[in-house]
Amino acid sequence: HYLKLLTKLKPKLDAHGVRTVAIGYEEIGLDNFQEGNFFGGELFIDYGKTAHSTLGFTRLNMFTGIYTMLKSKMWQATNEAKKDGVEGLTIGDRFQNGGMLAVSAGGKDVLLKYIQSGPEEHMSFEDVFKALGIEDSVPDEAMAPAPQCDTDVCKLK
């Protein structure tokens, strides 16, 4: 769902010379991903998860994965994705976390490095814009409502 929201920002990112690239780790679900237009940038497959490992993107184990699936914040994120037409696949490696890396033109400087602690966690687009030096505001259509969570329940404001 995050990549679909990021795609809504692509025209603004393009206007600022930002290249958007997603790196997956398997072809399972790739056809559905492409047919659903869930990402408007370039796609690469890293079959050995070399990039994921190098960047420090961790993989949940079975226990942390089950715990994550039971968290209210995960259910809220799943429901928001469904409202936007994004359905989760039940095949493939569902335990691999990801993140975001932004580098300067030419790759000289790291502008942003974000590592997910769980699949429901994502960096705010406001923070992404700030790291990239984009002073424009993030369009409302690219914003997912922020949940307000306590220890047991999440709700939308």
Automatic annotation (TrEMBL):
GO CC, any one term: cytoplasm
Compartment list: Cytoplasm
BP terms from Gene Ontology: prostaglandin biosynthetic process
Molecular function, one GO term: prostaglandin F synthase activity
InterPro entries xref list: PXL2A/B/C
Keyword Ribonucleoprotein: no
Pfam families given in the database record: AhpC-TSA_2
Top-rank lineage group of the source organism: Eukaryota
Protein name per the record: Prostamide/prostaglandin F synthase-like
